[in-house]
Amino acid sequence: MLAPLEHRGPDEWGVYVNSHLALGHVRLSIIDPTGGHQPMNSFRSTIAYNGEVYNYIELRRELRALGRHFQTDSDTEVVQQAMEEWGVAALPKFNGQFAFLFWDKRNKQLIAARDRFGIRPLYYLPYKGAVYFASEMKAFDALPDFRRTWHPDNLLIHGVLWNTLDAHTVFKDVQSLPAGCVAVFKGQEKVDLQTYYQIGASAAEVPASFDEATLQLKALLQDAVRLRLRSDVPVGCYLSGGIDSSVITLLCKAVKKERFKSFSVVFDDETFDESHYQDAMTALIQSDHHAQTIDLDHIDKHFLDAAYFFERPVFRTAPLPLFLLSKKVRQEGIKVVLTGEAADELFCGYDTFKEMKLLRAWEEGAGREDIRKILFQLYPHLAHYGAKDKLGFLEMYYEGFLGKTGGPSAGLAIRIHNNQVLSKYLNKDWGVTFRLDTLETLVEAMLPANVKQWPVLRRNQFLEVKTLLSGYLLSSQGDRMAMAHSVEGRFPFLDHRIVDWAFNLPETYKLNGLREKHILKEAFGRALPAAIVDRPKRPYMAPELAAFIRNGKPTEKTAYFLDDQRIRDYGLFDPKMVARLLFKYRRRGIRDIGYRDNMLVSFILSAQMVEYWIRHPQSRRLTDSRRQVDIMEQ
């Protein structure tokens, strides 16, 4: 099971075995590379731990004051001793991203814990009288006679929301420990599951004024960056050209002082390219900059390779450039990168927040001209939103969502509407149908009890964090693409102090009129190039259909996976519907193809590729010379 995960920790590996359990670990050595070997064993406990707790220095000081002694300089030992000292009450003290298994020898119980936002993955599988754990689901494929099989209902939910809910995954029996949770196992039974953190549960003090809020944001974010620069190996930064990553690189420069490496994706298609903004930022911070150029052939050639690591269907090709970028990062000798992820969720950067504001204003009686002004500004990167002859169509489209902003899934309504078409493409033999009422019941079950007291945008923020961020951006585009090449991504905006503080800010601080991330721009705007601060909002995108369909025909790899016989053999999709989709592209080409077609092809193709890797697991063996821990106890 460790061998398929070696990319997550190529530096060394180890095992601990007793009569109750076996723990294994592959290590990416970042803190205390010469110490901190895992699994880490003591008289009272054993731990296998993935991630970083950034305030480990302060926690070690606190534990020493309680009489504890340390053998290493690693954060692993701090986490282990904190768990021995405080039990699960230690978890709220940790500022970081982690997943770990902690064996309590005295009580003969295993504690499984995951960070507040699910940055680091942790899956578990009850199977043949035991429970197995892994950071990636492909490790389960090493079990004798086991093969992952799809869960049809969960696959549809994943397709509609871009994520499954609660502990569910797209595979039968494979479960994910939810973010912010801790579970206790005795034998093969899960005897307890607690939520130690929930976004929105903290009543953080609201700043007295907007000016005070900007000062607080600067201080909080600088300290978050300072903590995430703690490393015994060099740290770099991702630089997309947007304000989020620009702020992080600016603060890295302020904290580090010395020159550091930055990395970005450059597209040969100017529709997607943001290198102009990247150049403005690198000129300002004087970083040692490296760019990975991406063209259509890169996406077509490497999408299958990326699918091995993202393990679930994806809806865009956006993970692929990040997959190749992390390869370049590792080639440059960097193991750790800071990124600007999560600013959109915290400061209302997505257009979904503007759409909610539009619908709310419409419901409250805004005039037609005011509605049209908002429509014109919703998606500045999409030409048809600025075309007067499309206004009638856009008005009709958004009018269909009126009266729904108070519902439990209001913030997800447009995504659900656009994605439910996937139900028509799934294997008809499964008998899976889309039911909005069923989905809304599932969404409502994960909402806090006081959610009805929250403003509409705050509810929307909660849903974005729980679905798009935790299950997709931090997973398929984040952890899996970075760790594919043994690179750890760190996310200063996801410091829980910032999340709790930002979540309780007045909405106008975040979305002022239609100006997204208002407070972030005001706090750092004067220190950044004006072109970056004032640029129209545009999501990170990569070419999709154009990479897979050329001159009306699928590329060789696309044709292989969408071949009628292979669709029937894999059994995920309706072959007639897939054939009809391909016929449409042969007849009409792919010009003027919209979101839905791009999403369909990316989803179907990536699902087929995931199934391919389930049927053709890569054969790997660990190198004995890298085994640092081999312990057997009673």
Structural overview:
With 634 residues, the protein is α/β, with parallel strands linked by helices. The protein has four domains: 3-197, Glutamine Phosphoribosylpyrophosphate, subunit 1, domain 1 (4-Layer Sandwich), CATH 3.60.20; 210-341 and 474-533, 3-Layer(aba) Sandwich (Rossmann fold); 351-460, no CATH class; 545-615. It has 25 helices and 19 strands. The strands form five sheets. Strands 3-4-5-6-10-11 form a six-stranded antiparallel beta sheet, with helices on one face. Strand 5 and strand 6 form a beta hairpin.
Ordered list of secondary-structure elements with their pairings:
Layout: E1 12-17, E2 22-27, E3 40-41, E4 45-53, H1 56-65, H2 75-86, E5 96-104, E6 109-114, E7 123-127, E8 130-134, H3 152-161, E9 175-176, E10 181-186, E11 189-195, H4 210-228, E12 235-238, H5 243-256, E13 261-267, H6 275-285, E14 288-294, H7 296-310, H8 319-331, E15 336-338, H9 343-346, H10 351-363, H11 368-378, H12 391-399, H13 413-419, H14 436-445, H15 456-473, H16 475-483, E16 488-490, H17 496-503, H18 507-510, H19 518-524, H20 530-533, H21 545-548, E17 549-550, E18 553-554, H22 556-562, H23 564-570, H24 575-588, H25 595-615, E19 627-632
Parallel strand pairs: 1-19, 12-13, 12-15, 13-14, 15-16
Antiparallel strand pairs: 1-2, 3-4, 4-5, 5-6, 6-10, 7-8, 7-9, 10-11, 17-18
Summarize the structure.
The chain has 634 residues and is of the alpha/beta class. The protein is built from 25 helices and 19 strands. Helices cover 41% and strands 15% of the residues.
